[in-house]
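fold description:
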Amino acid sequence: MKILTIGLGYIGLPTAVMFANYGQEVIGVDVKKEVVASLQNGRVHLEEPGLQTALSEAIRLGNFKAQTNVENADTFIVAVPTPNKKDQYMSCDLTYVISAVNSLIPYLQKGNTVIIESTIAPRTTNDIIMPMIEEAGFKVGQDIFLVHCPERVLPGQILNELRTNNRIIGGVTPACVEAGKKVYGIFVEGELITSSATAAELSKLMENTYRDVNIALANELVKVGYELDIDSLEVIEMANKHPRVNIHQPGPGVGGHCLAVDPYFIIAEAPEQTPLIQQARAINTSMPNFVVDKINNIMSKNNGKKVTILGVAYKGNVDDIRESPALKIIDQLKQENNYEVSVFDPHVKQDWIEDNLDHAVENSDLLVVLTDHNEFKIIDRDALKTMKHRWILDTKNIIQPDTDMTLLNLGNISKRTMING
C-alpha cells in the first residue's frame, strides 16, 4: 500500500515512520522546507524516544521519503495542526486541514482512502470535509472512503502507543470504516473500534476534556488548601486511596496540543450546554497567575530580584512547548514584575534558555520548578550553592526536601506560610 501523510509533526512523522517500518511505501509531506530537508538528511526534528532509530530503519528499508509536494497514493493521512481561533469561544481553526485536503483532492482516484487524524470539532468530517471531496466529483463511501481516526498517544511513548493502544475508526459510512480498519490493521495491536466519524470526533475531544476537568478540580483544591492552610497534596493522596476516586495532580497550568486546546472545540459548538467545561478551562488558565502571585509573595519575603525557572516544556522529558503555562509565567515575571528571569531546560533548545544549570541559578533568589523532567528530580545541591537565597517553589512536587533549603510546593504553600514563614 502506498500511504501519503500530510504533516510531519509530533503525530504525522511517527505515524508515517510506523507504516514504513511495517512494509508500506510512505511519502511524508510537509510545507516546512527545513523539516523536509532535515528528514531527507536522515535526522528527526523533534524529540521523541526511539523516533530517530525508527526513521533510520525506514530509510534503510527504502520505505520512507520526505518532500514538500503531494502525489498519487492509495491512502492519504492528514495530520496537521488545528489551533484555536481568536474568537469568543476559541473555536477550531481548520485552515491547515482544509489546505491539506485541497492539496490532495487533485490526486484522488477511485478506491482511495482519506483519513483525518487531526483533532477537529464535532461534525467537521461530515459537514466540511465530505462536501469538499464530493464537489470534486467523487461519492464518499463508494468512490472515496473518508475516515476520522484520532490519535490517542502520550508524548514520550508515541511509537509504543501507536502500536498498542486501541484505535477509533470513525467512518462516514460502513464501507469507510472497513477501509480505515484495513489501513490501521497493518500495525495496530489494540482494538480497532468501529464508530461513526462524528462520534469519533467527539470521543477524542471528551477524552482530553475529562482530564482537563479533573486537573481543574485538583487545581481548585490547591486554592482551597492555600486559603484554609491545608496540604492539598496530602488530601489528594488520601482521597485517591478510595477505590472509586482518582483525582489528578495539580500544576502550574495545562499545556500541550490536546488538553489546553480540545475542550474549546466542544464549547464553541455548544456554548450553552458546556458550563462545566468552560469553568474547568477558566480554572486551569488561571493557574499561571496563581503561581506568579505566590512567586511575588516569596520574592517580597527575601527582597528577591532574580527568579530561575526549571523547565519550559509543557510536560516532562519532551521538548514540546506548545501552550506551555511556563511561557505565560515567564512572560508575566519579566513584563509585569520586572524580575531578572533565567530559564534552564535540558530538553528545549532556544537562544533565551540557559544551557548550564550553574549559570542559570547564579545569584538567584528563587528556583521555580515548572516541568517534571527526570533531570530535576535529583538536583546536585552543589549546583545551588551560588544562589543568593535557597528558596524553591516546586509546582510539580518532584524535588526531595533538604535541610539546607526552603522547599515549597502547591500543597504546603499557604496564606499562613506567606505571612509567617
The two ends are 66 Å apart (CA to CA). Residues 2-190 form a domain with the Rossmann fold fold (CATH 3.40.50.720). The chain is about 40% helix and 15% strand. The chain has a mean pLDDT of 95.
